[in-house]
Design brief:
Helix content: 40-55%
Strand content: 15-25%
Number of strands: 13
Number of helices: 10
Distance between the termini: 84 Å
Shape: globular
Largest sheet: 5 strands, mixed
Order of helices and strands: HHEEEHEHHHHHHHEEEEEEEEE
Strand order of the largest sheet: 4-2-3-1-13
Oligomer: single chain
Radius of gyration: 21 Å
């Protein structure tokens, strides 16, 4: 009996180390491929990107659909096409799009990715899914870029607060927990104890800490270190922008002064220029309809006014 138990223990350890080695190999492959894609499409290795714009460059159509039972689908017959559930949280859609683009980049066939909550119930290791998940992480949150965002703000990632992590996640257009996991398992910037402590603090709690009152509406923080010329949001989102920020039209409207800037709300689809007086800070805020359904390139079209 003891001999049988020892053989089983050795087998389990061998399986564990083999899988760990395979994951490391796949993660390296994903990272190198993300660098290759960024370089080939003219993006640097540190700035956030618009994943939908990248898909356009690669001639991969992206369509949002009102299907609640899945995260995304990659499909290729004559031309590659990505379907994304418009009912998923705004940052989640961006990561799922990068995930599905990974299936395209690595030459995978038709893929239907179920809801993340459902897929996590299965403990089976899928190399292809692990590969494209790593690819999505490195593509959207490159190593140099994540480190730079902390340095620019004078923050130490080894003792980062939930609000600081939330701010950086906004900068890369990803979810709060997504960034924590990437910094922990891929970038090795956070240890497991720190990551566990951060994840316990939920985004709704962070929003309340920032705003000073409970709010169910999504919040995007774009501070003076925002590093790309656009901010993507959808109707109903709140935007905390730098002090003195002014919008050129009513696509977003001023709500109130805040100790860390000015709070706006996205009211209607469209694109609006926002700038700060006496500084060089300026962005285009691109607002899509809430849970927009259709091709991604049309998500910012303004709605026709009633006669």
């Amino acid at each position: 009996l003891n001999a049988k138990w020892r053989r089983k223990t050795v087998t389990n350890k061998t399986t564990y180390f083999n899988m760990k080695r395979e994951k490391q190999t796949l993660a390296q492959e994903a990272m190198h491929k993300s660098i290759e894609v960024r370089t080939q499409t003219g993006f640097d290795l540190k700035s956030p990107i618009c994943i939908y714009g990248l898909c356009d460059q690669l001639n991969v159509k992206v369509r949002f659909v009102d299907i609640s039972s899945m995260e995304g689908i990659y499909y290729k017959e004559e031309k590659p096409l990505i379907f994304l559930s418009a009912l998923r949280p705004f940052p989640r859609r961006a990561f799922t799009c990068a995930h599905e683009l990974g299936h395209h980049i690595f030459g995978h066939g038709l893929r239907v990715d179920e809801l993340i909550e459902d897929s996590e119930k299965s403990k089976d290791f899928n190399p292809d899914e692990f590969l494209v998940n790593c690819f999505a992480g490195f593509l959207l949150m490159p190593t140099l870029g994540v480190r730079k965002t902390f340095v620019d703000r004078g923050w130490d990632f080894t003792c980062a607060t939930p609000i600081q992590i939330f701010t950086i996640a906004c900068n890369f257009g990803v979810g709060y927990e997504t960034l924590i996991n990437h910094m922990t398992y891929a970038l090795k910037m956070l240890d497991s104890t720190q990551a566990s402590s951060l994840i316990k603090v939920k985004p709704k709690t962070i929003r309340q800490q920032i705003l000073g009152y409970p709010s169910s509406e999504p919040l995007i923080i774009a501070d003076e270190h925002w590093s790309i010329p656009t901010i993507d949001a959808e109707v109903g989102s709140q935007l905390l922008l730098p002090s003195n920020a002014e919008a050129a039209n009513q696509t977003i409207t001023f709500q109130q002064e805040h100790p860390n800037g000015r709070l706006f709300r996205a009211n209607r689809p469209g694109i609006v220029r926002v700038c700060c007086r006496n500084t060089n800070w300026a962005v285009l805020v691109r607002v899509s309809r809430h849970q927009f359904v259709g091709l991604s390139q049309y998500r910012h079209l303004e709605e026709p006014e009633d006669d």
